Amino acid sequence: MDTNETMSVDILAEENFTTTGDECTNELPTVQEYLDGLTLPIAIIIAATVLLSIGTFSIFFKNAYHILHRTPKQFKTKSILLLTIYPLITLFGVVSISVPRAFFLCDTVMHVYFMICAYVFFSLCMQYVDGEDALIKSTDSQTFSLRTPPLCCFVPLFKRAPVTKNRLRFVRMLIMQLPVVQTALFLALNVVFVEDYPNFNRIILYFVPMIVISILLGVWGLNILVRMLAPLYSDLKLMGKYFVLQAVLILCRIQPLIIAAIVSSSIADCAFPNTLQVQKNAIFQLCLCFEMMVLSCWASLLYKSPSIIGPG
Asked: What range does the record give for the signal peptide (predicted)?
């Protein structure tokens, strides 16, 4: 190789190195690359999320023990399934930070389990009131209302109406579509993530409208349900139980956008393997694990006493 060729190779290598060092890449590191380039802040975040996850699991096992010994038999399984969401999210939060390439799979598991919990919550509410037939008999003539968030502005002409089988079926279908539709959409997105990651952020934009519409319809159904039952069965603390469940969706879906904006504007160093995506995900999972521990403590108070059947 002559001198000119050697100089050309050196210049190209220097340009590639500069590009890699100065620009943020979308590539996600392997576990080995991630561990080799692990920084102290990321290591501290991983340790903190592990501790928070252990704390959340401890709270969960305490709550589960209490439910198994003091809650009426017909409510035990569904109550524990709802409380499982908090330790599950912290567990997959730790996995997401530790294995960068698994972050979207972990996010999918969290998201789909929440959608399942939404329908479990509906079923638990029906058990609280001793079934749909008992609810119809016990409610007054003007209990059912479609004018609830987030779609209340789109149905201003609908007035309050009696509870009927068909209206309860409508609410059930609004909530039931959540686990079905969201699971299908996120499975498709996982295929895209694996097969075409460089274009993933562009392709996901076509899925966002369907995801958002499905979530809005499901949340609308849950709001109709809770606002219908909460005034009639105050001892069940349905509004509080619904809020600690709904907060999971808000924190998992809206909070990442806020954190991404803050991190993108404040962090300049994003050299591989600690890319911008890795840093955003680490900070988000740390916040989420702390919030899940707080929500788990709150949920333990709401599910602590045995549920009472009957109007409050």
From this structure: none
Structural domains in the chain?
40-304 (1.20.1070)
Chain-centroid distance of CA 279 in Å reads 19
Give residue 58's Cα distance to chain centre: 21
Residue 13 pLDDT more than 70? no
Supply the pLDDT for residue 206: 94
Nearest 5°: phi and psi at 279? Answer: -70, -40
Question: How many C-beta atoms surround the C-beta of residue 284 within 10 A?
Answer: 24
User: Residues 20-38, buried b or exposed e (16+ Cβ, 10 A)?
Assistant: eeeebeeebbeeeebeeee
Give the predicted TM-score (pTM) of the model: 0.87
Rounded to the nearest 10°, the torsion over CA 9, 12, 17, 19 is -170
pLDDT in tens, 258-294: 998 888 888 767 788 888 889 999 999 999 999 999 9
